[in-house]
Design brief:
Helix content is 28%, strand content 19%. With 577 residues, it is α/β, with parallel strands linked by helices. Helix 2 runs parallel beside helix 12 and helix 10 packs across helix 12 (326-333).
């Protein structure tokens, strides 16, 4: 090719990179050399000196864990969008092996998880992602959202070019080229595109003003992630979060950069961690506000159900990892205060555990007042939370009943400590509607067994209070048998000998499926509790129909926009003096 044939062009998009500070506070930027035929200027932009870090706190099972020798035991890296390695590693693990591995004192946070590729335009490399904690949390559930949030908050510094906010007086066409150098007028009430028009109580949403956008533009918002050991008490995690907040603030006070406060965004159980953290001395001033997504504010009844029957009939694939039957779930759950803190608290309400006769009449409804004494610590009743025998699985590291009782009391004390307490600047969204059914109540339905034509030793009223050793049998799947016996028959086909096990019983009980609205995990009664218990602290609360619990941030634009709206409102409350 001759020199005359060379065609000089401009790139289709403006080329820019944002300067970032090194450890000493000096500004630097990296740029990969491009073809000499591109003639447009690469702009190196200087971000605002005010820094408001955003710290994301994941839900239970959303943090990577290792053993005490730094070998990962719970790693949520993905292949083709799916945590294949985690699923393959846990699908066939029996209860004993689960118990031996997943104990809070034998695990710790693993920060060596997957990281996104370098982000050239925002000046973030993998070293920085690692320093910000992204390797601690689930790539599968969270990285897509965290990347989206980083770009939304830092990808464009001119509020006149923020396309998610509109006003009739502004131009409809808002390309970057047209808006560079233009200014957003003050005094306008903006429309946030994609935001619900009303809050969960039907009230009008407090719209964002152009003055709030102008104030947000005075800060930069690096996105951090905070992993914690979800097997240990959430109070332990809250203390670690408080330390992380202080560390993040300190490391962003470098050179000309100034940082006084952070914003926290939570998923599921992470909300309980952040609520506890906000109550600690000095934390409410260091945290501008908190955004809670799909938080089990007062617990979730499904936690009880999984301890009793596992997840097989709820979600077969997830059950292979979390536990297909009650034995597999209980082996971990009973020794993990963090998991036990997902159980319904006293504030969840009464009568959420029921036993029904064959006609649907409630024979038993609990709790009357105290779920800990009336349900979780019932050692003998068949409907009590934990079967003592399941604390000692084959090839496990057994725990005693007293150790389990200690953990329940830790959960109870934690529930009471955060009951009705929220940061004074709190935003909430939760799942609602009928599309994603959840467990609001747990109902055991009785029916007559195969021996029901014989004279029964058990009246239907007697069954509700039977002890486990009074002719009650279950293997942890969704069947409880009363009376009768287990019958084992052998059959032969050729040289093969097959053993068939059947249950002969006078009565059977099965745990019903979802009965109320929610996100598939957290029912509305728990999701909407923040406004009911702390109305002055909740600045806005949204019910979002159709969202699913685990992928709420990853897969649902409406949840992302609610979070983006809330962060923008909180940024306007920052102390920039």
């Amino acid at each position: 090719m001759t020199h005359d044939a060379v065609k000089y062009t401009q790139s289709l998009r403006p080329r820019f990179a944002e300067l970032t500070p090194d450890k000493s506070g000096r500004w630097e930027a990296a740029w990969q050399l491009t073809d000499t035929t591109l003639t447009d200027v690469v702009s190196l932009t200087l971000p605002p000196s005010n820094v408001i870090p955003i710290i994301f706190v994941p839900g239970i099972m959303g943090t990577n864990l290792s053993d005490l020798y730094n070998q990962p035991v719970w790693l949520l890296n993905v292949f083709s969008g799916v945590p294949v390695g985690l699923a393959a590693g846990w699908a066939k693990k029996p209860a004993g092996e689960r118990q031996a591995i997943l104990h809070p004192e034998r695990t710790r946070v693993f920060n060596g998880g997957a990281l996104p590729p370098n982000n050239r335009s925002l000046g973030i490399d993998q070293i920085q992602y690692r320093q910000r904690g992204w390797g601690e949390v689930s790539e599968a559930s969270y990285h897509k959202f965290l990347l989206w949030l980083e770009n939304k908050m830092n990808g464009q510094r001119n509020p006149a070019a923020w396309e998610d906010f509109s006003h009739a007086s502004l131009k409809e066409v808002r390309t970057m080229g047209e808006k560079i150098g233009s200014r957003l007028p003050s005094g306008l009430m903006m429309k946030t595109n994609g935001l619900p028009e009303s809050s969960d109580n039907g009230g009008a949403v407090d719209q964002i003003s152009s003055d709030e956008l102008l104030k947000r533009s005075k800060s930069t918002f690096p996105v951090y992630a905070f992993g914690y050991n979800w097997l240990a008490s959430n109070m332990d995690a809250a203390k670690s979060l408080a330390s992380r907040v202080q560390k993040v603030i300190a490391e962003n006070n470098v050179g000309s950069r100034r940082c006084r406060q952070v914003i926290i965004v939570t998923h599921s159980m992470g909300g309980l961690v952040a609520r506890a953290c906000a109550q600690m001395s000095g934390m409410s001033q260091k945290i501008i506000g908190i955004v809670h997504g799909v938080m089990p504010a007062t617990g979730a009844a499904v936690a009880y159900r999984r301890c009793k029957v596992g997840m097989r009939d709820e979600d077969y694939a997830a059950g292979l990892v979390i536990g297909s039957d009650g034995r597999e779930v209980t082996a971990v759950f009973a020794q993990a205060p963090g998991a036990l803190q997902l159980l319904p608290s006293e504030s969840y309400g009464t009568n959420w555990l029921q036993v029904h006769d064959p006609k649907g009449k409630a024979l038993l409804s609990l709790p009357d007042v105290d779920p800990y004494e009336e349900i979780y610590l019932k050692k003998d009743q068949w409907w009590g939370l934990v079967d003592e025998d399941w604390l000692k699985p084959i090839e496990g590291k057994p725990i005693s009943w007293d150790y389990y009782v200690r953990n329940i009391k830790i959960a109870r004390d934690f529930h009471r400590k955060i009951d009705g307490k929220y940061h004074h600047n709190t935003y909430v969204f939760f799942g609602g509607g009928e599309e994603k059914q959840s467990f609001s109540k747990i109902v055991w339905n009785l029916k007559k067994g195969s021996m029901s034509e014989r004279e029964s030793d058990f009246s239907v009223n007697k069954i509700k209070m039977l002890n486990r050793n009074e002719g009650v049998r279950t293997d942890g799947s969704n069947n409880v048998y009363f009376g009768g016996r287990t019958v084992v028959r052998t059959t032969t086909r050729g040289d093969a000998l097959t053993m068939l096990k059947t249950e002969e019983s006078q009565w059977e009980a099965r745990c019903s499926l979802q009965d109320g609205s929610g996100d598939g995990t957290v029912p509305v009664r728990s999701g909407r509790a923040p406004r009911e218990t702390a109305p002055t602290a909740i600045l806005e609360q949204f019910e979002l129909p159709g969202i699913q619990h685990e992928p709420a941030y990853r897969d649902y634009p409406i949840a992302q926009m609610v979070t983006y709206y809330a962060i923008t409102k909180l940024a306007a409350k920052a102390d920039l003096s």
